Amino acid sequence: MKPVCDFSDKRSDICELKGNIRIHGNSSTILSAISTSQIEQSWTIKPHPRKGDLTALQHVTEMSVKLSSNKEEIPSCSINHTIPAIFFSAGGYMGNIFHDFTDILIPLFITSASFRTEVQFLISNVQPWWLAKYKPYLQRLSKYEIINFNKIENVHCYPHVIVGLRSHKEMSIDPSRAPNSYSTLDFAKIMKKSYGVERQEAIKLGDNQAKKPRLLIIARKFTRSFMNIDEIVRMAEDLGYEAVVAEAEVSSNLVRFSHIVNSCDVIMGVHGAGLTNLVFLPVNSVVIQIVPLGGLENIAWIDFGRPAFEMKLRYLQYVISEEESTLIEQFDRNGPVFKDPGSIQRQGWLAVRKIYLVQQNVRLDVNRFKSVLIQAIQFLH
What is the pTM of this model? Predict the structure, then answer.
């Protein structure tokens, strides 16, 4: 008999119950009613795929999963369902679009796709604005009402419940582990359908073509901002681009923003959550990730480089020079921030984040960067 809960995966824990399952809105218990001849057992689980990340899990309510034959403990059903359910938490880093995708939306696709919309979602630690933002996608995966677990007080009963979400890697799906060999590209396709974006392929430039490729420059307001955006736009336009500057905020209307992204052929931005919108690009578009100082090349590749390739996009990675970083105005050029970023990394992620992600802005050397934009145009031929 398959174990109810599997805690062996490094990214997420999963419990799967079949039979007579009760989910009580007022409690933090998911209960499976069993016969007196069966063994009673219980587990605790944080149903969110950021296992081991204590900062994220502070915002995730722990659930108790129980097999019980005690009739006094088993609540009566208020609503009986005949379909399976997936119970998960949207807590963690909710609102950061990268984490929304890598921690929730992609794992939910992996976990729910085999049900072919015949499944109901119960979501804890969720805000109404988050549900509104991702409703088009959630409704593409389930044709049933989405239940905000924190708002219900009655008892929902199901024949089959999965607690938690399956997760493979950052912003990616491993087809060898996914139902029906689903891939990251399949996720991108369903995301585009959900938000009604229609352009399937990037512009194909010919020798005599008058139409210009559209370049989307993802601007950031507070950290890792471009300090010379006007100069970047002028240079891009001189090379033959139509340049569009847009900012991807937490509050941005995803329907509107996804259409802006889909209308473009090249997207560029400093490493950060806004690049998550590459999911809406047409196939064969080009992603240019600008990597700030701090030894962040590998994490940049994992977060956005590999996913871009898996979504059939072209990918260019540009690592800035010391002269292009505003850190030269704050730290000694001969100190560890510049000469030994490994010593900062050994202090832990919070130290890396504080210096290289929060305190750093970028002043692109347009002459040094020019060749990258030229290469992107060559990709579009």
Answer: 0.96
pLDDT given for residue 25 in this prediction: 87
Distance (Å, rounded) from C-alpha 376 to C-alpha 317? 11
User: What angle, 0 to 180 degrees and rounded to 10, lies between the N-to-C axes of helices 254-262 and 128-141?
Assistant: 60
The number of angstroms, rounded, from the C-alpha of 11 to the middle of its chain's C-alpha atoms is: 14
Q: How distant is the alpha carbon of residue 224 from its chain centre? A: 19
In angstroms, the CA 199 to CA 73 distance is 54
The CA distance from 378 to 381, in Å, is 5
Residue pair 21/158 in contact (Cβ under 8 Å)? The answer is: yes
Hey, which residues does 172 pair with through a beta bridge?
A: 169
Domains of the chain: 5-194 (no CATH), 214-379 (3.40.50)
> What pLDDT, in 10s, does the model give residues 178-233?
999 999 999 999 999 999 999 999 999 986 678 899 999 999 888 999 999 999 99
pLDDT band at 126 (very low <50, low <70, confident <90, very high): very high
Q: Is the dihedral of CA 353, 129, 158, 76 positive or negative?
A: positive
Could you give phi then psi for residue 201, rounded to 5 degrees?
-130, 150
